[in-house]
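Q: What does the predicted 3D structure of SPla/RYanodine receptor (SPRY) domain-containing protein look like?
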Amino acid sequence: MSINSNNSNNSNNNNIKNQDPGLYFLELARASSSTGVEEEEEEAPTELNTINSSGGFLVVSPDKLSVKYTSVNLHGHDVGVVQANKPAPVKRLVYYFEIYVKDAGAKGQIGIGFTNETFKMRRQPGWEANSCGYHGDDGLLYHGAGKGEAFGPTFTSNDTVGGGINYASEEFFFTKNGAVVGAVHKDIKGPLFPTIAVHSQNEEVLVNFGQKKFAFDVKEYEAQERMKQQMTIEKISLPPNASYGLVRSYLLHYGYEDTLNSFELAGKSTVPPIFIAQENGFDEQDIVYALNQRKTLRQLIRNGEIDAAFDKLRNWHPWIVQDDKSSTCFLLHCQKFIELVRVGALEEAVKYGRMELAKFFGLAGFEYLVQDCVALLAYEKPQESSVGYLLEDSQREIVADTVNAMILSTNPNVKDLHCCLHSYLERLLRQLIACCLERRSMNGDQGEAFHLHRVLNSGNKAKC
């Protein structure tokens, strides 16, 4: 199953579908070269910002990872405050940093938290609006006001204290010596900087922005958060016959006939009768069309038997391969070339490329994939190269999906080519993607991005 989760391409895809379903999969083949690439990595804090600090009340070490209060404070505003050099990254599930209290000094008035860019640098984090801080001398949490609230234990010399942002729950959380102390709702918008404050003579802290192992197990915390999300999802009830119908339509759509038979046999005694509404032009006969032929062709392509697939198509559906320069023929020719490289038949691959792929050079929309295919010959270990994606099973799946869609499009009863491209299960997943993107947008694009391929790849793909 191949799902393009880039909503910006929807209008273009609709035009492609109305012309030639094969062109849609040609675009998908282009996208597959970057499948798995996450969003551009955000810059994260790496050191303390010596420019944006309360200067005279503290000394920052040359490595910019430790700070010491050197004065004798005479006033409440004589705080030594320093922010990180970058705001906390937001496109992730959790951000976290730690401090180690090397010396609690005269009073242990150490604070850790998050502040915005305009924060007054002679105030403890949490004393001003748009800031939040956990303080060592009283164990209180300050959240935009001068009065703190009961939160956790105090901390002093030799303690390790951490501050984090959970973007899923929209909370600040704090830790002490590897254990969570507590959390509070994050109601501050905009970029937030990890912030440290010292406020009495000889207080000294070391900062860890991830350059060494944290005392707190962030990975385990993230795993627990994902488990909470999964448990919430699992509590949502879905009628058995509805989910059964979606899976069944998916197997029918892609020609997984053997899996379908086993699935129906297993469901006979456990699933209530299915009544699929004839809505939006849905007719099960549309996806039952040429089921056995589609199954056979999918198996051949997944096994790398491209010549046999061509022969079957010429016998069963000659219209699909009538135009030797169509997108469908192009993808099949590319896959034949790839299979020759896969088994080390390089001389034969060169000959085949000159005979079949050369005709696509210079044709708009085809050149990128031709170039990637030919580039396979340049590497001693093509699987480990930048074009190694072509040797993955997912590339065979794209070609198999192309042929499957083209056969479905030959059904004289099909009124909308859209139904040839995606199963109803996939359409549901595409709607899920749209909802997740919208929800994240409403939260200021904060939080972990939703990557459907990552979710799907975590499970086992259906086998026929």
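A (community wiki): The structure tokens above were generated from the sequence. The two ends are 13 Å apart (CA to CA). Residues 1-18, 275-282, 459-464 have pLDDT under 50 and may be disordered.
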